[in-house]
Design a protein that fits this description.
Elements (H helix, E strand, L loop, with lengths): L1 E2 L10 E5 L29 E6 L5 E6 L2 E6 L4 E7 L6 E6 L5 E6 L10 E6 L4 E8 L5 E5 L2 E5 L3 E6 L5 E6 L9 E2 L7 E5 L5 E6 L4 E6 L5 E6 L5 E6 L4 E6 L5 E6 L7 E6 L5 E6 L3 E6 L18 H16 L1 H6 L2 E2 L2 E4 L6 E5 L5 E6 L3 E6 L6 E2 L1 E7 L8
Parallel strand pairs: 22-26, 27-31
Antiparallel strand pairs: 1-2, 2-10, 3-4, 4-5, 5-6, 7-8, 8-9, 9-10, 11-12, 12-13, 13-14, 15-16, 16-17, 17-18, 19-20, 20-21, 21-22, 23-24, 24-25, 25-27, 28-29, 29-30, 30-32
Organism: Abeliophyllum distichum
Pfam families: PROPPIN
Subcellular location: Preautophagosomal structure membrane
Length: about 400
Amino acid sequence: MQLDPPDDETEKDYLLHDSDDNKNPPWTFVFPDPDSKPNSGSASTPALLHVSFDQGYGFFAMGTDRGFRIYNCCPFRENFRRDFDCNGGIGTVEMFLRFNILVLVGGGETPQYPLNMVMIWDDRHSRCTGELSFRSEVRGVRLRRDRIVVVLEQKIFVYNFPDLTLLHQIETIANPKGLCAVSQVAESFVLVCPGLQKGLVRVEHYALKRTKFIFAHDSGIACFTLSQDGIWLATAGCKGTLVRIYNTHDVTLLQEVRRGADRAEIYSLAFSPTAQWLAVSSDKGTVHVFKLKVNLGNLGSDRSLSPTDQNLAATTSSSSLSLIKGGLHSYFNSERSVAQFRLPEGVRYIVAFGHQKNTVVILGLDGSFYLCKFDPATGGEMTQLDYHNFLEPEEAL
């Protein structure tokens, strides 16, 4: 089924294609035998284009210049790979939990799919069962059990999953990194994205039908993440020295932590499952773990902001920032990290908390996989528990 582009000016940025198979997608766990690696292709090392965790942080996916692969984090192992016959590149691959459904976007010098298309891939049948086509390049995709969120340069589309019905669209400031975060709790859908002004973060509470705004950083937004339940939001500015933790319900600033004094690019932020810890990676080659002080007592009152009243949001949030620069900043005292892990500089890393207690998983775009453990009592340097290079040829795995 193919839908023509809508005539309405507000909805003309996308096309939708949907196969009959997608009406009843297979929601079953069907990962193949880990020892089976179909379509493995050449044993030479591929070029890594993308790496991302699944929503539960138990798996990670990588896109290469010839296909994609799925790995288990603990214990580390390759679950399966798909190398396309034409060696087409995959620039984005997002896993739908532990199911056989993945979302793919082309990438590299010879993309497998156009850069303006999102492909719904059913790995049980090794083919696409649906696709979304846009008039500009796709910058990012986010998934949760009931939604697909597609991020373009200046617009975000929210679709129902699995029928791909368009539910909402949001205009943003220029967003080349494809910044967006969604909660994973079934009964509470929270989406965070850039607003229409520099440093402004937009928070959509779909269950509550409320939109709120936070002026998080006057230097602009470099990175942010949500806790699994969507209550806590961590943001990093373009200066990369401070990370701020907010309550998304009343948009209050709860805590401020300091990565370092030197300017840095923050690559990744991650909450632990209980929101007790926050991990931060940057171009300085160090992963920091901070202890958080958030708890249910911080929820406070619910002060709604109208989605059309951004001027009011700007005024309120600017006042909050002025407090941060003064007494509030001194009160929080920019707490420093409890634990650190040193990595080679010049590599982009993303982080997540492992399923083992007090562990952190680190993935590098050089193919590096680290599993580290920190001591919550003494802190200091983390202990490396495991290391692999997941770009090595198949025979070396």
